[in-house]
UniProtKB/TrEMBL annotation, chain A:
Coiled coil: none
First-listed, main subcellular location of the protein, grouped into a coarse class: membrane
Protein name, per record: Monosaccharide ABC transporter membrane protein (CUT2 family)
InterPro entries from the UniProt entry: ABC_transp_permease
Residues passing through the membrane, by range: 16-40, 61-93, 113-140, 147-169, 175-201, 233-250, 270-297, 309-328
UniProt-listed Pfam families: BPD_transp_2
Keywords, ordered alphabetically: Cell membrane, Membrane, Transmembrane, Transmembrane helix
Top-level taxon of origin: Bacteria
The keyword Cell membrane is assigned to this record: yes
PANTHER family listed in its UniProt record: ABC TRANSPORTER PERMEASE PROTEIN YPHD-RELATED-RELATED (PTHR32196), GALACTOFURANOSE TRANSPORTER PERMEASE PROTEIN YTFT (PTHR32196:SF19)
GO CC annotations on file: plasma membrane
From TrEMBL, chain B:
Major location (coarse): membrane
GO cellular component: plasma membrane
Matching PANTHER family: ABC TRANSPORTER PERMEASE PROTEIN YPHD-RELATED-RELATED, INNER MEMBRANE ABC TRANSPORTER PERMEASE PROTEIN YJFF
Species, as recorded: Pseudodesulfovibrio indicus
Pfam families assigned to the protein according to its UniProt record, in alphabetical order: BPD_transp_2 (PF02653)
Membrane topology (UniProt): Multi-pass membrane protein
Protein name: Monosaccharide ABC transporter membrane protein (CUT2 family)
Length: 348, 340
């Protein structure tokens, strides 16, 4: 008997099979029915193509779902990610054009790029700290704690932009959302970095195990001496940081901060990605699954758009997909299905 | 109902105090704040929030949550507008269709939550996006509702004084409030809701119809959301698919500020009414101030909700021997509430 389990016997990888099958199905559908879908070309040393586009457009959702996965693993949820995206973008745009809200159209002296990136991310971390403290130390249910920021946060973002859409031109900052590194769109690089960092932190240290322990059995983890509260706060902060980076990508990509619409409804995409990826509340989590989940969501959206179906239907579509996946993961539903199938077999 | 000064009643007393303080400050700062007209306007402008908040009170008392309310209001408004404006349907027919849609949506969510033991938060979040998506499918723009019958509904009401007019939507709000008080205090349904929220396992062991009551609660809530949608379209005379984004927070805030515990089992519909009036007062305050923008409302509501949650947490830990479900609080300390 070999000590290393084979690929399929490994629980973590076995979980990824169904999401991978779903993703492959969508891609195969597109290869068969969407002309030029698989076509990747190199223009001026940059990669272009539908597949690259899915990765690029999906970068914010992928980033947020990495953070959301860890929050899920501790038995919580973060509804405020969309609002944090709006806040982060609003602050970045405000730093680039501080006088715009006062009606000054000319550009003043450009704020150093370092500040334009660092300050929104620090504020995002503060938002995560707020969520984490509410959940871990005050003991508010995660849904309610993050709902406060989900709605009030958008109010804060509007406060920063004074209700306007702040447009800007700032070449170095636009690199975040529209630049290329080694021919690969920069948002994809950011996702890869976040993914690698999360993997190293959770799978190469005991942190991942602690998070799973907190989510699976809070009481036992307490007796084990895990500092559950601190870890929870850290996880919410990490999730908000991911959302903050996603906010920078979105803001830099559209060259504007729209406090009303940036990241609107993104919570569902992230939650859907995490659930499709096979992480349920509390306990075992798989970040890779969430990434595949996010890719499924994004390729569904792209497919709907390229097939000329009304984009409005995507919300309905996503809602149906997520409830189906949740049902499949519900034991009662599986039992009912199994019961039906057994009855049918008995009837034969 | 006898009010005793025990731990249960402290949140509701705090609510009344907050209401009086905001009202007094407003009256002190602005002339005309104390007028009957401003007071009646609270019932007109917040009729739709109030109607949902009463449904939400039952949902939260039973220990669940509903995040779909804002989207359902938007969906119903757009459906009503499409039916009346685009298809020329008579509102007498269109309104019942809308109400039925709300009830069916609520019932479906209740069934998913009960039969498949899915967390109510997940199911209603999906419901939120489904309803919003359906509203977008019906129309992307604001549709006006122009119909003689609809206008007569809006104009229906009675004059109190020369300046004060009580329209139909305020009366609907008061009627639904009365219904909520009746349901919560004088019916089996209300008692079952409290029992489920207090301790669901005990409720099952006592032989209470837990599943049926939960489905009833979500159906009632869906129906009330649809009614609120109709009231909202009477109020704005149009249907708009992006209406009421973030209404969930206002409604949940109204319920929590009204003294209902988020952990379930404790709360009064009467408190919710005051919670709604407080939100309305904040809005009025910002309107009277004139220099503050609409986003301040969101921020203030968030802060107020936070303060009341702190108050509730403080009270439930300070009197741990009190009659608030201690086991539930422990579960909450474990941080697993999202899963339950």
């Amino acid at each position: 008997m070999s000590l290393k389990p084979s690929f399929l016997q490994n629980e973590a990888t076995a979980k990824l099979i169904w999401p991978l099958v779903a993703l492959s199905a969508i891609i195969i559908f597109n290869i068969l029915f969407t002309p030029g879908f698989f076509h990747i070309e190199i223009k001026d040393g940059h990669l272009f193509g539908s597949l690259i586009d899915i990765l690029n457009r999906g970068a914010p959702v992928m980033l947020v779902s990495i953070g959301m996965t860890l929050v899920f693993a501790t038995g919580g949820v973060d509804l405020s990610v969309g609002a944090v995206i709006a806040i982060s973008g609003a602050i970045a745009a405000h730093l680039i054009r501080p006088d715009y809200v006062k009606g000054v159209i000319e550009y003043g002296e450009l704020t150093p790029l370092f500040q334009v990136i660092a300050i929104p991310l620090i504020v995002s971390l503060a938002a995560g700290l707020w969520n984490g403290v509410l959940v871990a130390y005050v003991g508010v249910q995660p849904i309610i704690a993050t709902l406060i920021l989900m709605v009030a946060g958008r109010g804060i973002a509007q406060l920063v932009t004074e209700g306007q859409i702040l447009v800007f031109i700032h070449e170095p900052f636009q690199y975040i959302g529209g630049g290329f590194l080694f021919g690969i769109p920069f948002p994809i690089i950011l996702v890869l970095v976040a993914l690698a960092a999360t993997y190293l932190l959770t799978r190469r240290t005991a942190l991942g195990l602690f998070i799973e322990a907190i989510g699976a059995n809070p009481k036992a983890s307490l007796y084990m001496g895990i500092r559950a509260k601190v870890i929870k706060v850290a996880v919410y902060m990490f999730c908000a940081l991911c959302a903050g980076i996603a906010g920078l990508i979105i803001c830099s990509d559209i060259k504007a901060a729209d406090a009303n619409n940036a990241g609107l409804f993104l919570e569902l995409d992230a939650i859907a990605a995490v659930i499709i990826g096979g992480t349920m509340w509390g306990g075992r989590f798989t970040v890779a699954g969430s990434i595949i989940g996010a890719l499924i969501i994004q390729s569904l959206t792209t497919t709907i758009l390229t097939r000329g179906i009304a984009p409005e239907i995507t919300l309905v579509f996503k809602a149906v997909v997520i409830i189906c996946v949740a049902l499949i993961q519900s034991e009662t539903f599986r039992n009912i299905l199994a019961g039906r199938l057994m009855k049918k077999e008995a009837g034969k | 109902m006898r009010l005793r000064l025990n731990q249960k009643n402290i949140p509701i007393l705090a609510t009344i105090a907050v209401f009086l303080i905001i009202y007094a400050i407003g009256g002190f700062m602005y002339s005309g704040f104390f007028s009957l007209r401003v007071f009646v306007n609270l019932f007109i402008d917040n009729a739709f929030i109030g109607i949902i908040a009463i449904g939400m009170t039952f949902v939260i008392i039973s220990g669940e949550i509903d995040l779909s309310v804002g989207s359902v209001v938007a969906l119903v408004g757009v459906l009503l507008a499409t039916l009346v404006h685009d298809h020329g349907m008579h509102p007498m027919l269109a309104i019942p269709i809308c109400l039925a849609l709300g009830a069916v949506l609520g019932c479906a969510m209740g069934c998913l939550i009960h039969f498949f033991q899915l967390p109510s938060f997940l199911v209603t979040l999906v419901g939120m996006f489904l309803a919003r998506g359906l509203a977008f499918l019906l129309s992307l723009n604001s549709i006006p509702i122009k119909h003689p019958f609809f206008e007569s509904l809006v104009d229906f009401g009675f004059q109190v004084t020369r300046k004060v007019w009580v329209p139909s939507i305020a009366m609907v709000f008061v009627a639904i409030f009365a219904l909520g008080v009746f349901l919560s205090h004088f019916t089996k349904f209300g008692r079952n809701a409290y029992a489920i929220g207090g301790n669901e396992q005990s409720a099952v062991l006592m032989g209470l119809p837990v599943g049926r009551t939960k489905i009833y609660i979500f159906t009632l809530n869906g129906l009330l959301c649809a009614l609120a949608g109709v009231v909202y379209s009477l109020y704005t005379m149009s249907g708009y698919p992006l209406a009421c984004v973030g209404l969930e927070l206002d409604v949940i805030a109204a319920v929590v500020i009204g003294g209902t515990l988020l952990t379930g089992g404790v709360g009064y519909v009467e408190g919710t009414l005051i919670g709604v009036l407080i939100l309305g007062l904040i809005q009025t305050f910002i309107t009277f101030q004139g220099t503050l923008s609409s986003w301040w409302t969101k921020i203030v509501v968030g802060v107020l909700l936070f303060v009341f949650i702190l108050l509730q947490r403080y009270l439930s830990t300070a009197y741990s021997g009190g009659d608030v479900g201690t086991a539930k609080q422990n579960a909450q300390d474990d941080g697993r509430t999202a899963t339950e």
